[in-house]
Every structure is written in C-alpha cells, then in structure tokens.
C-alpha cells in the first residue's frame, strides 16, 4: 500500500508564497505525480503534474507562471512551490499518483 504524506500547507497573505511537499513511500507503477485541489463548493481541479520519464510538467491555466512543481527522486518527494498566491488559491490540496493513490490533503488559505 502506497502512502503519501503532504506537508507545507498553511496561511499566507495574497502575494505571498508557500511550498507544499509530498513524500511517497513507493514510486513503483507510478509514471506521474501531482497535485489536485478542492475549494468549498467548487469542483476538484488538477493543479500541476510532473511526469517521471522525461520530467515534463503540466500546469492548470489558473496557476501557470505562479506555481512550480519539482521532484527530488532521492527523497521520493515532489514539491509544489506556490508564489504570488491569490485568495482563489484557497483550497485543500491533495497529492496524487497516476497509480491512483491520494494523500490526506493539506489546507492552503490565502487572505
């Protein structure tokens, strides 16, 4: 059973930054890892993904130019650097693997 442990959420002011981390216990069978988010009353949104093979990345239009996803394979960790935060970035952020595993979520609140 793969475990994902997220950290780094919290509160920030608009224009500020936060960095989320996701440590996975096992990358076996995973070719992509990334972040979804869900705000109250809104649909779940795919935010950013990194593909392990070539290192290519995907970003939702809403975060392009502000968020950066990166990976440290040696630490089995993926990061989401979030800059220029906006109140609309407020949501519960989930780390997700292409093999179908989800983390418990970490709250990001921007005021």
How does this model look, in words?
- With 111 residues, the protein is mainly beta.
- Helix content is 0%, strand content 50%.
- It contains no helices and 10 strands.
- Strands 2-10-9-4-5-6 form a 6-stranded mixed sheet, with no helix packed on it. Strands 1-3-8-7 form a 4-stranded antiparallel sheet, with no helix packed on it.
- It is globular.
- The N and C termini lie far apart (37 Å).
Question: Element order, helices and strands?
Answer: EEEEEEEEEE
Largest sheet: 6 strands, mixed
- Which value, in Å, is the CA radius of gyration? 13 Å
Question: Count of helical segments?
Answer: 0
Provide mean pLDDT, rounded: 93
Strand tally: 10
Overall form: globular
**Strand pairing plus helix content: what structural class?**
mainly beta
Give the low-pLDDT segments.
none
Strand order within the widest sheet? 2-10-9-4-5-6
User: How much helix, percentage-wise, in residues?
Assistant: under 10%
Measured between the Cα atoms of the first and last residue, the distance is 37 Å
Strand content: over 45%
């Amino acid at each position: 059973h793969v475990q994902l442990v997220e950290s780094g959420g919290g509160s920030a002011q608009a224009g500020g930054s936060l960095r989320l981390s996701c440590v996975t216990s096992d990358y076996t069978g995973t070719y992509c890892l990334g972040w979804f988010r869900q705000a109250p009353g809104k649909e779940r949104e795919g935010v950013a993904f990194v593909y392990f093979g070539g290192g290519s990345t995907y970003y939702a239009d809403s975060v392009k130019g502000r968020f950066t996803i990166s990976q440290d394979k040696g630490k089995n960790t993926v990061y989401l650097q979030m800059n220029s935060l906006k109140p609309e970035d407020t949501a519960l952020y989930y780390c997700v693997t292409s093999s179908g595993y989800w983390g418990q979520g970490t709250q990001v609140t921007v005021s």
